[in-house]
Amino acid sequence: MSTDQSDAGALHRDDASERAAVLHQRGLMQAEYGDAAGALRFFEQSLAMEQRLGDGLGIAANLHGMAGLALDAGDDARALRLYQDALAIRERLADTPGIAATLHQLGLVAAESGDDREALALYERSLRISTESGSDAGRAPTLYRIAGIYAAREDWAAAAGFYRRAAECYSRIDNVERTAECHACLAAAAFVNGDAAVAIENGREAVREFASIAHWPRMVGLLAALPAYEPEMALSWLAQAAWLACAMPGMSQDGMDVISAITRRLPTGCTLELTIAALTVLRLEREAGWRKLALMDPARALLELAAMNHDMEEEALEAWLQGRRTGFTTLYREVLDGLAALVHTEWLFERSAVPRAR
Q1: How many CB atoms lie within 10 A of CB 318?
Q2: 201 and 270 assigned to the same domain
Q3: Pair 188, 154: CB distance under 8 Å
């Protein structure tokens, strides 16, 4: 559900309204699981009970939850109306955390509608309230969204300032994933500003943070970005990214891009060029669904180019590839060992912690 700001602390219940609170929580859980219809049903049931009880905090919380579902469904008009209704109740009750949360969500609605000026004004109102109350959990997502607006305007200095503050807030509340995303954005902003040292520092930190929570897919793209920040280490960083893409289960578009990039950097006719391409094709043969459909053609093209660089005719290539199918485990180890040999700098993750493709 498109809710950056939660309602922690907004529901203070007595025993008589406990069932309404439980229904609200079940709505939040269903929304988290992606069951919008189930979430709406629970929110509506909770809302009806809260209206009978006359509990303004509970009414506002359910309206807020229903608005998030509408925003996810692309119904900006309904989301706007529900958030405004929730805000009016929260302002009447002086529910400070709730006011900040709903103002933030109204900023999201404005941003979704393309009105960045209104979004920024709403985010700034939310930020002032969260700052006055000392809520890092409230401030962090708002700072991140403000940074995004400045980044879209290509005001990289302003964007970096807000990303930095967001990272500090997320770090204090131990949200490693969001802290890492902020560091990744700081790296990109610094690179555009021509500050390679800051780009490298934040890029490496983001990789380490994602590694600490085993967010391997996100790391592939981040590692692949490091060569732009540190050209003299380009092959080492690309090798780490390609090692991760080849090692872990499932092939992604980022992984395919990294594999293509590193094969272009290898000397023409290098054995590793051929074995990486072969491993990629054989792994995709074992896949199902969108990955196989989307990535097999570029993988085959990569293999055919590598075969051409080795003066290998089509018939010989297919015979060689069949042998590699039989010896897949050996091929897998060869590729990982070959990529590891290209790394001449520190590894930014523990290879032993990475789950392996089968």
Answers
A1: 12
A2: no
A3: no
